[in-house]
Amino acid sequence: MTITGIGAVGPQGSLQVVPAATTSYQLTAQGSGGTTQVSTHVNVQTGSTPAPAPTAALSLSSSTIQSGQSANLTWHTTNAWSVSISGIGTVGAQGSLVVAPSATTTYQLTAKGDGGTSYASARLTVSTTTPPAAPHVVLIIEENRSFSTVYPIGMPWMSALGNAYGIATNYYSDQSGSMLDYLWLSSGSGEQTFGCAGWGCLQTITDDNIFRELNKTGLSWKVYAESLPYAGFMGSSYGYYVKRHNPAPWYSDVVNSTAQQQKMVPFTQFAKDLAANNLPNYSVIVPNLLDDAHDGSISAADQWLKTNIGPLLNSPYFKLGGNGILFITFDNGDADRQGLVFTGVVGQSVIPGKKVSTAYRHENTLRTIMEKLGLTHFPGASATASPMNDFFK
Questions:
Q1: Taking the C-alpha atoms of 223, 338, 370 and 169 in order, what is their torsion angle to the nearest 10 degrees?
Q2: How far is 66 from 62, CA to CA, in rounded Å?
Q3: CATH number of the domain at 55-127, please?
């Protein structure tokens, strides 16, 4: 056993000390069971001036955290010979440490000195509220019809849906050639660098795209393509399905991964996923050539939407409290020409009956979808495109 300033001592005893100045004595006892330390303090008054009062400061890097997160606790004291923090114990005169309590906690700092005792406290609120889930966004792409061709008379069911929720009245497609506009909706570019044209691409696209960003953040996606013969089909056509109306199979993320290819499924899977409340975060719906107004009539396309999208609107995703957002747009105007096209926005978060005259294009839809999904890296022209926030409450 030892005492600072004195040396080795016996296991018990006493002695008289006459320090010339204020002194702390610390006893250290070592044994087979470990080491124990205790201390005492002798205050020596050498004049009439009272000892200065200790100061204490305690702060947190954040006053609120989610359960499982942490914050930095920082403290600073002066004129103190004993400093402790509740729940932590004895600490130095100043310092910082990481705290991660499981429940809301108030930390109290106690600083003792010759001039008295000072206190400081800091409260860290731990929130156990589950963060809101990422929304479920659905994009439907129709074919080759100008705004005036389909609205308000040509496709009455779709027009009424837009009137009830939101319609962009100054929305233009980006380029003539169907395939290019599907790419604008997915990577913010027509991707001519990769030899892309209205019929498809000569090379695999390696540019950033929404599917890559969804994969990077762990969000789910699927393409529901009508007449696709089986999940993962990469062929150019099958019956009334055509690859050029599917945005996913052109990107390296899908081309080089059979697992990603399995996210392209026949449209029949949509009803099953919907019934099971198991839609992915991002759904792209691709009607076939007869039902997207490409080869078939606009009345047939309108009836197809009513029959197949009506159940979606009656699902929990789109009822009061649901987080679903539906975008219906057209790749191009009449005869596959670049021009003014119908774009409707539907969901509980949409201002009812909203008509927006702001000039928008497909890259604005892409930016809006990605922001709504909580993504932060925006490919191509979507990086500078404005989100269509004027539709939302």
A1: -110
A2: 11
A3: 2.60.40.2470
